[in-house]
Amino acid sequence: MQITHRTAGSADILDLDGQFNFSARNAFTTALGTLTKRGATHVLFNFRHVTFIDSAAIGLLAIAAQQCKLVKCTLGVVGAQGAVKQVLALARIDQLIPTFPDEAAALGGKAA
After folding, report:
1. 57, CA 20 to 30 Å: which among 41, 49, 64, 76?
2. What DSSP state is assigned to residue 72?
3. What are the pLDDT tens digits along the chain (112 aa)?
């Protein structure tokens, strides 16, 4: 999985591309850790190009939600589609991290 960082307004956006699974754990935790150490207050995970997600990735999202809560950083998941969106819904990830259909909705605070 590739992870790139960009900003939009006051949000830091991590664009995830590819399969979000156990092998992506180091890249994911490093990317998020870098942002929280810099004092990021709002981080969006852009799932538009995520093609697969497994239970390890769901666990990483749950841990990220807990860690960010401790440092007063809010999270959001943006643009999940197809099977990835279904897995996130089944895991009820929206109870930990708000989900949004697109970046405009996330930046405007309108959860899906």
Report:
1. 41
2. T
3. 999 999 998 899 999 999 999 999 999 999 999 999 999 999 999 999 999 999 999 999 999 999 999 999 999 999 999 999 999 999 999 999 999 999 999 998 655 5
Question: Helix, strand or coil for residue 58?
Answer: helix
Q: Could you tell me whether strands 99-100 and 74-78 are parallel, antiparallel, or unpaired per DSSP bridges?
A: parallel
Tokens 């009820």 correspond to 92
Residues for the chain: how many in total? 112
54 burial (CB, 10 Å; 0-12 / 13-18 / 19+) is: middle
Reading the block at residue 17, the tokens are 């591309």
Dist CA 46 CA 25 (whole Å): 16
d(CA 86, CA 2): 22
